[in-house]
Amino acid sequence: MKIAIVGAGPAGSLLACYLVRRGHQVEVYERRPDPRRYDDEEGRSINLGLSARGMRALTDVGLMAEIQPLTVPMRGRAVHAPDGKVAFHPYGNRQTEILHSIRRRDLVISLINQADSAGVAFRFDTTLSALPEADAVVGADGAFSTVRTLMHRGARADFRQEYLPWGYKELTIPTMPSHHEALHVWPGGDDGLIVTHPNLDGSATATLFLPYDKLAAITDPEAFFAERFPDALALIPDLAKEFAERPVGHLVSIRTAPWHHEGQVVLIGDAAHAVYPFYGQGMNSALEDCTVLDACLDEHPDDLAAAFAEFERRRRPHTDVLDELSRQNFVELRERVRSPLHHARKRADLTLARIFPGRWVPLYTMVSHTTTPYADALAKAKRQDAVLRWAAVGAAGLAAVAMLARKVR
Amino acid sequence: MKIAIVGAGPAGSLLACYLVRRGHQVEVYERRPDPRRYDDEEGRSINLGLSARGMRALTDVGLMAEIQPLTVPMRGRAVHAPDGKVAFHPYGNRQTEILHSIRRRDLVISLINQADSAGVAFRFDTTLSALPEADAVVGADGAFSTVRTLMHRGARADFRQEYLPWGYKELTIPTMPSHHEALHVWPGGDDGLIVTHPNLDGSATATLFLPYDKLAAITDPEAFFAERFPDALALIPDLAKEFAERPVGHLVSIRTAPWHHEGQVVLIGDAAHAVYPFYGQGMNSALEDCTVLDACLDEHPDDLAAAFAEFERRRRPHTDVLDELSRQNFVELRERVRSPLHHARKRADLTLARIFPGRWVPLYTMVSHTTTPYADALAKAKRQDAVLRWAAVGAAGLAAVAMLARKVR
Ligand SMILES: Cc1cc2nc3c(=O)[nH]c(=O)nc-3n(C[C@H](O)[C@H](O)[C@H](O)COP(=O)(O)OP(=O)(O)OC[C@H]3O[C@@H](n4cnc5c(N)ncnc54)[C@H](O)[C@@H]3O)c2cc1C
Ligand SMILES: Cc1cc2nc3c(=O)[nH]c(=O)nc-3n(C[C@H](O)[C@H](O)[C@H](O)COP(=O)(O)OP(=O)(O)OC[C@H]3O[C@@H](n4cnc5c(N)ncnc54)[C@H](O)[C@@H]3O)c2cc1C
């Protein structure tokens, strides 16, 4: 069968590897130039946190060994307090419970090379505005998917697009003085948030998230940093220049249905479900889509309509939950990581996980370090929370009984 | 100022009356032919329930006296049980707490005549696909607004479009044997819902709402009615013919933001907020938009940007609540109106309203028979519910104390 994929981002180029392995004739159309020839990052989300789901999907096509050396481990969060103190909080109990920072470009080039050598045809510099000729078309063309628009035209499609009222700017930290192997966070509450991902060369990319009105009101970025994030100011030597030159990035959440049309079209990745980036799961869920779709094609090898329908049925409830989790983690990153109580709770979670290995798994661990489907992870976390609450009630009850017993005696 | 309105539906033609009164030069573009010359109903939602908000808006431009004779009062709901029994439940305690059934066409023609004679220029048979030349453009072009799409292009707009998985068909009841002055309901649970609005000539328009799969599965409409709605079957002599000829209508809910752009464009009516029709408030809220926008123009006569921004700030929270209420009322109409408990609760509400006039107002009454803004109505209803709950707890508590007291004695 001839299958056309629109978009050679993480989702499209990984799916190309899966589909060519199934024996299909695969063609990928990509608006941008071949990243192997040109370096055009557009300065947007240039490094990302790869976690268990993405790694599992890359392992399935035999790429993880090649990609591993391109990543920098992030072993936990380094939280910066206003006074400049840095507190390190590990992501998990085990060596494997870490994230991996990777340049989007490096990941995509590996995927394209792999697909290319397996016989996938790539058409770069090609912006599609109509569906290409093929037995089926996969829309992997990101949050503003043209394939989605074409597929939904005139149809009874549900669609929800929501912008976070915060934009972002990417800035460069040439060297991180401590905790290079960490995701650094400056939680600024309603006044902003900085998150950094490390690069192989010892530098890090900082992303400043800020409400639009505050972002627009900054006339002197150095003065702004001196007031809000003084210790970050010292780390970004080119602040004024970068702040002036780099575009403001926007954050959009997208949910939609249906994801497919009669075995002819199917959406994956951000085209089907875009989330705010605060759980670091956008790309990971896009890559995981490919494994789920591949499994559905396995079950319905001769019936694309059934495979696509099953893919949406099986997958959408989980990406809907990821959308919720990504919203909640925005609050966590900008607010709660400042609170000692929050860290006490996190530590208690990790301690329980050590005492009951496999039976008590913190939500963050399930989402980032396992491939438990998102909705199942959330459901399990809620059950754990209920146990904790009942334990607290039970403890209070026991204390009351003990007091009464003393009085009675 | 020259203001262009796109859409001569209820919202656009009423706003034309308001704007020409403010001294503006108003031009209205409408895709369909002039309804005063042609009868082209397309068979869709041909009669609607006008309630307090819409009436208030029509009174403001002096039209209610002219429109009143075109309406049929609906004094309550006539609920049809499976055994054919009909129970009548009045809408309120007072003569004025009723709805008014009107043909959409009659309403729009009155509005167009009024606007026309005040100097508004109408351009019928004109489908706009670009914004017209004017100092400001009003998008009153309904749920699938072209003005909205043009205004949001490239902007960070929030947008949510959701289809109910139920479609509808309109059918004709030449004479309603009893309770002509009522809204008739056949609550069929998950198996369908029929609602009728009366017409001046003694006939009524029935709307059959059904899940799409069930609608598609009907091969013999008479057999379907004989099984599900036997007493309705007898009322619709042309059932088979109408069922085959009339199109399936779709129900969409739309929320979006922003509603305006820099004093140049503003959205009203279904273009800004479309709701499921189960609270009978879609057109009423569209008409009410005109009074709210007019008030904002009063406050900012020389600053359209400020007026449009204030309109959205003041109005959107209320239409968001209407969206929720319209979803809830879908459950009420198809399920709860079957339950005696529900009617007991409704009667208790009306009794409390009689005992505490003005202080206890059922939610349905506030939404349909007053102009209390939707969100304020919901908040007040929630407070009333809390009082009822506490009263119940209090009664139970008193009973318990009484029992204890008896035991102690
Ligand atoms: C600030 C930020 C930080 C993030 N951090 C993380 C993180 O730490 N971890 C994580 O997992 N995710 C993260 N994400 C999310 C991640 O970037 C996306 O989820 C991921 O890129 C989605 O992959 P995709 O292949 O579905 O879409 P995209 O990456 O958007 O790729 C779509 C491709 O389609 C092409 N295209 C679009 N339209 C057309 C057309 N009409 N014709 C031809 N080609 C077309 C585009 O050029 C593009 O190459 C972050 C996102 C942002 C904004
Ligand atoms: C089954 C059903 C029952 C309903 N019952 C009730 C009820 O009982 N009570 C109630 O209050 N509401 C009810 N409604 C809702 C009501 O019909 C709508 O809310 C109301 O019509 C909205 O008015 P509007 O003027 O904003 O939009 P519309 O009525 O949709 O008018 C928009 C106008 O713009 C024109 N137009 C569109 N695009 C263009 C373009 N590009 N160029 C030029 N012209 C264009 C259209 O032809 C149309 O005339 C019901 C709806 C349905 C579907």
TrEMBL record, chains A, B:
Start and end residues of each FAD-binding domain: 2-133, 134-294
Cofactor: FAD
Database matches in InterPro entries: FAD-bd, FAD/NAD-bd_sf
GO biological process, one term: kynurenine metabolic process
Top-level taxonomic group: Bacteria
GO molecular function terms attached to this record: FAD binding; kynurenine 3-monooxygenase activity
The species this protein was found in: Nonomuraea endophytica
Protein EC: 1.14.13.9
Keywords associated with the record: FAD, Flavoprotein, Membrane, Monooxygenase, NADP, Oxidoreductase, Transmembrane, Transmembrane helix
Membrane-spanning residues: 387-405
UniProt-recorded name of the protein: Kynurenine 3-monooxygenase
Alphabetized Gene3D superfamilies for the sequence: FAD/NAD(P)-binding domain
Enzyme class: oxidoreductase
